[in-house]
Design brief:
By secondary structure, this protein is mainly beta. It has helices spanning 115-120, 243-248; strands at 3-5, 9-13, 19-23, 29-34, 37-38, 60-61, 90-97, 102-109, 125-134, 137-146, 152-158, 161-163, 171-173, 179-182, 188-191, 196-198, 203-207, 214-218, 225-232, 236-241, 261-275, 280-291. It is built from two helices and 22 strands. Strands 7-8-9-10-22-19-18-13-16 form a nine-stranded antiparallel beta sheet, with no helix packed on it. Strands 6, 11, 12, 14, 15, 17, 20 and 21 form an eight-stranded antiparallel beta sheet that branches. The longest helix has 6 residues, at 115-120. It starts with a strand and ends in a 7-residue tail after the last strand. The model has no long low-confidence stretch (mean pLDDT 96). The structure holds 6-O-phosphono-beta-D-glucopyranose (BG6). 6-O-phosphono-beta-D-glucopyranose binds at residues 53, 66, 80-81, 159, 183, 204, 238, 240, 265.
């Protein structure tokens, strides 16, 4: 069976042995395996019972990225990273199931959001999140529809945790010469003159208006494996690794687990998207797992 629906999650399988798991809670993809090899990081300490956002996989950030800097915006009272990652989505069924790909959908509207969150952001909306698996490629796509009688503003971000063997070896290409806001340095704006990003300390950068077609996350562990990230309608990209000090302060991340993860998060976060009543917005990411030595994995 290519699609298995369980009480708390859905498991999808590709005919060539790749798979993905998606929890209804947050519609969080918690696992993506290429022919058996896990490609997403999920903390061993992550709660999966719906009491806290899942620490790993691909949490969906909506309608607020981080905490709003401006207390006058409508999303200001929402918790960090908004409401989607802590709301239970409904099963939207299988939308594609053929030889080459499996695609499943999850939905969330305002009536399914916990009451305390709905109170602080009382907007009528509908989200449809589509997860598509195709051998070496995972695609996650979000559509947002305004079902209210007035416009609303939102951020969106696909907070993707890649599983990597060693953070000190990882390099990220495609963000050279693009200015970013450095959250570690008091939100100052900077430009990195290095061709690739390497990780030697806490990294928390918001790259705005990234023109790059492909962001490449090189694993550099001798295997020549890499992730190629393509974005649709997501102009910004956040790069995050908490490093040891922050990891120690996080109850749902092991002290050493920062070595096995890197977050490359495509989104629209440096300003808000405004949606008028009945309008929809759509965006997403396509991640391909490749081995550079022989090109496309086969
Ligand atoms: C990143 C932010 O997107 O998410 C970081 O840039 C933040 O500042 C990180 O620490 C994790 O956030 P949370 O709420 O899941 O701990």
């Amino acid at each position: 069976m290519p699609v298995e629906t369980l009480e708390d999650k859905v498991i999808i399988k590709d005919s060539r042995g790749s798979s993905a798991e998606i929890y209804f809670f947050g519609a969080t993809v918690t696992s993506w395996k290429y022919r058996g090899k896990e490609l997403l990081f999920l903390s061993k300490k992550s709660l999966l019972d719906g009491t806290k956002g899942i620490r790993g996989g691909i949490p969906v950030v909506f309608p607020q990225f981080a905490k709003a800097a401006d207390s006058s915006v409508e999303t200001a009272a929402l918790p960090q990273h908004g409401l989607a990652r802590i709301s239970k989505f409904e099963w939207g069924g299988v939308s594609v199931d053929n030889e080459s790909e499996v695609s499943v959908r999850f939905g969330l509207n305002d009536s399914q959001v916990p009451e305390n969150l709905r109170k602080v952001w009382p907007k009528k909306f509908k989200l449809i999140y589509t997860v598509t698996l195709n051998d070496d490629t995972l695609k996650t796509n979000l559509s947002v529809t305004n079902e209210d009688i007035a416009p609303f503003d939102f951020n969106v971000l696909l907070h993707t945790y890649y599983s990597i063997p060693d953070i000190s070896k990882v390099s990220v290409d495609g963000l050279f010469n693009i200015s970013y806001v450095d959250k570690v340095k008091n939100f100052t704006t900077d430009i990195d003159n290095n061709q690739s990003i390497n990780f030697t300390q806490t990294t928390d950068r918001i790259y705005g208006n990234v023109p790059t077609e492909i962001i490449k996350i090189n694993i550099n562990d001798g295997s020549n494996e890499a992730f190629l990230l393509r974005r649709t309608n997501l102009k910004d990209t956040v790069v995050w690794n908490p490093w040891i000090d922050n990891a120690k302060n996080m109850s749902d991340l092991g002290d050493d687990e920062y070595k096995q993860m890197v977050c490359i998060e495509p989104g629209h976060v440096t300003d808000y998207i405004t949606l008028k009543p009945k309008e929809s917005w759509e965006g997403g990411q396509t991640i391909q797992y490749v081995t550079l030595a022989i090109g496309h994995l086969s």
